[in-house]
Each structure stands twice: as C-alpha cells, then as structure tokens.
Amino acid sequence: MEEKKTRKKTNSIIRTIVIVTLAVLIAVFGALYAVSRTVARVQLSNLADAFDAFSAKDSSAFPYVTDAGAVVRMVSIGSGIGVLRTDKLEILTASGAVLQSVRHTYTMPALDEHGGRVLLYDRGGTRYMLLSKTKTLYTGETEKPILTAALSEDGRFAVATTSDNAKSLLTVYESSGEAFFQYKCVAEYVTDIAFTQEGVALTVTGVKDAASYSRLLTLHFKKTEPAADVMYKDMTLFHVSCSGSTVMACGDSAIETLRHNQQQPDQSFGSDTLQFFCSEAGGKATLVLLTYGNEHRTHLRGFRRNGEIDFDADCRQKLIDASRSDTYTCVLTDGAVLTYNNSGSQVGKLTLTQAAQKICVSGRMVYVLFNDHIEPFPAAGDHTQKTAG
Asked: Which DSSP state fits 294?
C-alpha cells in the first residue's frame, strides 16, 4: 500500500515537472518566434520555419508525384529535400509535406542552399530569389546575365554576372539585398563562388594563346587585392568549397587546395576520368572516377573538409548518379542504390524494382527519382523497393 502511494506521488511529481517544463518551453520559443518575425536577419528565419513546419498539416506525403523530365535537381534542405523543376521549386519535409511551392519562369533555373535557405536564380538570365523553407525573403534582378551565385551561412549572398568592361563581375550582398562588395575579373569568367571566414573564394576560367586556364582566388572584403591568386594551366576549375582555413577546388583533372592561402600539392586524377562530383554543405566531397575512362570500372574517392583523401573505394559498376551527405555517399546503378560511409565501406544496398533517374541523400534517407515520382528509403541497411500496386 505504501509502495502504491509512493508510486502515485512520484507520477504526480513527474506530471507536474513535465507540464511546467512544457509551459516554460512554449513561452521561451514563443518569444523567440516573435523576435524571428520582427528582426530583419535572414539567419532567424529558420526558427520561424521550424514553427511553421511543426504546425503544418501533412496534407501531402510521399510518393511525391512528378514527371522526371521536369526535375532539374534535388537538394538536401534540413531533414527534407528541395525539388527544383523547370516551372517551380518545392521544399518538402522528411515526410513529404510541401512547406513551400514557388513558381518561376526561369530559362535555366539553378540554386544554392545553405543552412535551410535557398538562393534560386536564372543562369543566363537576370532574376533571382532568396527563400527560407516557408517564404520568399527577397527578390532581385541584375543588369547583366548571371553566371553563377552562392549563399553564405549568415544570409549574405554573392552573384557573378557578365560585364561590359570586363569578362565578369562579382557582387556580394547583405541579406537585405544591399550590395557591399564588388570584384571585376577582366579576362576570366567566374565558374563558382564560396564564402570564407573573411570574404569569398572564386574559381575563374579564361583562354590565353588558344589554351584554357583557371585561377583560384581568395578575396578579403576589407582588401582590394586577392589574398591568394593561383593559376592552373590546361585545367577548368568548376567547383570551390571552404572549411576553416582550407579552400578546396575541383577541376576536370585534379583537386586543388589552399591552406591559409598557401598552395598545397594537387590531388591529380592521373589516368582516370571524372564522371561525377558531389559535395555537402560542410565541405566534404566525393568523386566518381572511371579507371582509364572505363565506365564499368568506377571507384569513389572521398575527401575531408581539409582537402585530404578520406577513402578510395572500388565500385566497379556503371553509375547513373551520385549524391553526398556529411555521413554517406550514395550511388545509383542500373538496379540499385549503394551507400558508402566515410571509411569507404558499403553500408547499404537498396534493390530497385523500377528504373530510376536521380538520387539525393539527406540525413539518413536517400530520395530516389523514378519516371513519375520521388520516394524515400533508408540509406543504410539492405532494402528492396516494394512493387507499385
């Protein structure tokens, strides 16, 4: 009897603690939510998104119906994905609810994602939008056609365009849309942009004496001259990422790295051919390389954020697509999705019963684009797609 009273008293105390704790949490998050609605910082928009996502009715669920031919790209956004189509961008939760659907009329739609925000732009056009998961934060238009664009963690964004008196012009904006930094590339076109701790890193490409070349630059917002400027002959650099003091750029024949603005030995592909390059927001990357150019002799080379090789794993299958997260690298074969960890060990196999076009790994899930829909599956472990119907 005494034991029963004690248990009852204990349960009552636990209920009281839970109720009080929930009340405090609701008050605290309610105050933060109100602040996020009134303070003009894009960084706080994620908090509002979290509340909107929590309260959103799950009126939509996977499978997400779409024509594969209309899907330009799938990207990881938080625990869900963004589906960029030829007519709109839709941001989905992990369960398939549509948080936001933004229509566009862009000829060549492209995007950059960082910290739950998206910079959607028209490559070759002049329009762009800055979005959170649930709303449009800013819309803008450039004077000249856009080459590429990038988004930073704090809401700043950069847009590279063509220019009348130079090959290209880089402009960096505050989250409010106010321009505060510009840099002209007289003889080269900007191919990619990444934000560093004190500025931006650029890959640019030009032609001299009938031969192509690339440069890797790091720019400081408070200085007029580049902190680093390295030229690479007979190479096209097309991607750049930054982590701490490391800047890593991928080209068609090697990975190039700067550390503290000093050039490091390159990571050449040798006789291999680059088929796919995939990276995650933190700076980790995986290359799909064809051994001696043979598409049936593929291997995966993973890189850490500091530009060092993490793993090299044989796949030896013809690959259709590849995707990378902080934890996993997933590759799409003719009849399966294979998952590798950061040690290069295979930790998952999804056997497919339908033809697939693209994949996107987000968190612990891999999203597969089939001919008429997108469906999620666990990335790790052995699984088989259920036959439709």
From this structure: -
